[in-house]
Amino acid sequence: MKVVMKFGGSSVATGENIRHVSSIIKQNAKNNCRIAVVVSALAGVTNGLIEVAEQAKRSNEKQIQAFTTELSEKHLMAIKSAISSEAIQKEVTQITEKTIAELEKVLTGICYVGELTPKSKDYVLSFGERLSAPIVWGAIKDRKLETQCFTGKEAGIVTDSNFGEADPLMNFTTHLIRERLSPLLEKGVVPVVTGYIAADQNGVVTTVGRGGSDYTATILGVALGADEVWIWTDVDGIMTTDPKIVPAAKMLPQLSYQEAAEMAIFGAKAMHPRALEPVIKENVPVRIRSVFHPENQGTLITEEPDANAKQVVKAVAMIREVAMLNVSGAGMVGAPGSYAKVFDVLGKNNINVMMISTAASEANISMVIRRGVLGRAISSLEIALLDRGGLVSDISSEDDVAVIAVVGANMKGTLGVASKIFTTVARKGINIRMIAQGSSELNISFVVKEKDGKEVVRAIHEAFNLDKI
Ligand code: ADP
Ligand code: ASP
Ligand code: MG
User: According to the model, what pLDDT value does residue 331 have?
Assistant: First the structure.
């Protein structure tokens, strides 16, 4: 069996965790599994890098020193507890020190220039995975397996130049990965690849979006013709909701690609929103499973939903860090192409619209976008549309909202689901700001104030008895 195994930040949070990860790899290798490994940065490191890059932009040089010292200690400590052999420890320590020295130079450069471009930000963010992968590699080597470490770029993942949210050029990537990694896998060598980071056609480092190691894993899974992709994480699988909100949430043993994709897009942090795209085309099964309970099979995601799973609603998710944008103007009424103009402006500015709703009067479009791009969205719409022929007369926004998505394949054609959802929310006295249902009928999503989000999730989870499935 050939498997790509991805270990997320929580699975490699400490040296002990990394040692545990290497034992899982060893165990599976013993059972004749050919394995390619994808690793995320140690938990919290990517967030730290974002923070320090912002500090560097504000020319806060002191912060850089403090950050790199702490980062260095964290990784050196992890090396000591993940790897027993002194020789391997020394080898990985040298790589770590060299990488941190490079990061320090990059941050100092940003500090002097006072500028952080999407390109330089991706470069800074790449250091999280560049530091974690060698430790995992060392821990695997420590267990007497043959292994080799690669950055996403070295492995052959080539993307477009959309820094921060880059997309793979799948044909070229497949060709390079097969050329570089397949022969190793055939020989029983375990390639360890940094998740999240890749390079564009000019060799400039890119990242594929937050949580992107999942995406790296599925890209690799397809390119290598894997039998399955296993996403190891800190929960038992995909659950009926985030167990951090509802501790009684249940694990879903099987989901269709479509259902899992709806959940990923709508905030089940358990997976990157685009991670399923490559595997859907090639029909490679994905399994989400827990490093803390490797004996469990986790959630299996395939083309077909489980024939026995009759329940209508399967899960409820809350997506944070979003904002609602309202564009209105009497000039939009009955004017062909007016919506197209709004979406054209957003599209040209690389702003992804997650949810849309319009009134039948056509005088208003409401959209949900990522909170981080709200300022850019408003300013680009204002420059392009406001007061030009009266098409748009007002642009307003709310940045303290969350999307709640209720997901399940059997919702299609089942009457009364929407009314049950909205009655449940109304009974809590919570106001709904916007509603959308895709024509796929796989999910109903709506916007509430973020402060009410958890309460809504709990109420819906209970109303549909999701803790009893
Ligand atoms: P990793 O570090 O392994 O990539 P993430 O933090 O990205 O892990 O994703 C796992 C987390 O996703 C879980 O700890 C859980 O709190 C959260 N989560 C949110 N919604 C769900 C859900 N429906 N099922 C499982 N986990 C969920
Ligand atoms: N380290 C990256 C992030 O935190 C990628 C990942 O964890 O998958 O977003
Ligand atoms: Mg993740």
Answer: 76
Residue tagged 């909701």 (tokens): 241
Of 42, 46, 50, 129, best ligand 2 pocket probe by most atoms within 8 Å of the beta carbon = 46
Q: Which atom of ligand 2 is nearest to the CA of 128?
A: 1
| Separation of alpha carbons 394 and 258, rounded Å | 36
d(CA 448, CA 150): 43
Indicate which atom in ligand 2 lies nearest the CA of residue 209: 9
Of residues 54 and 339, which shows the higher confidence score?
A: 54
What average pLDDT does the segment 432-447 reach? 84
**Rg of the chain on CA atoms, in Å:** 23
Tell the burial category of 184 from Cβ atoms under 10 Å away from its Cβ (0-12, 13-18, 19+).
Answer: middle
Split at pLDDT 50, 70, 90, the class of 438 is low
Place of tokens 């969350």: 402
Distance 327 CA to ligand 3 centre (A): 33
- Contact 315 CB / ligand 1 (< 6 Å): yes
Cβ count within 10 A of residue 349: 15
Contacts of 298 (CB under 8 A, 6+ apart): 230, 236, 237, 251, 287, 288, 289, 290
123 touches 205 (CB < 8 A): yes
Query: Which residues are CB-neighbours of 206 under 8 A, at least 6 positions away?
Result: 122, 159, 160, 161, 162, 163, 166, 197, 198, 199, 200
**Are the C-beta atoms of residues 163 and 225 closer than 8 Å to each other?**
no
Confidence of residue 309 (pLDDT cuts 50, 70, 90): low
Say whether 89 sits in a helix, a strand or coil.
Answer: helix
Atom 2 in ligand 2: residue holding the nearest Cα: 211
128 lines ligand 2 (CB under 6 A): yes
Among the residue ranges 111-115, 313-317, 338-342, the one predicted with the least confidence is 338-342
pLDDT number for residue 241? 94
Q: Would you say the CB of residue 128 lies under 6 angstroms from ligand 1?
A: no
Q: Is 212 in the pocket of ligand 2 (CB under 6 A)?
A: yes
Atom 7 (ligand 2): residue with closest C-alpha? 211
What is the value of pTM for the model shown?
0.90
Non-local (6+) Cβ contacts of 146 within 8 A are 187, 188, 189, 190
Ligand 1, pocket-test mutation among 6, 14, 38, 269, most atoms within 8 A of CB: 269
Checking DSSP bridges between strand 299-302 and strand 355-358, what pairing results, if any? unpaired
Tokens of 352: 């992804």
Residue 298 has pLDDT above 80, yes or no: yes
Given pLDDT bands bounded at 50, 70 and 90, which one contains residue 307?
low
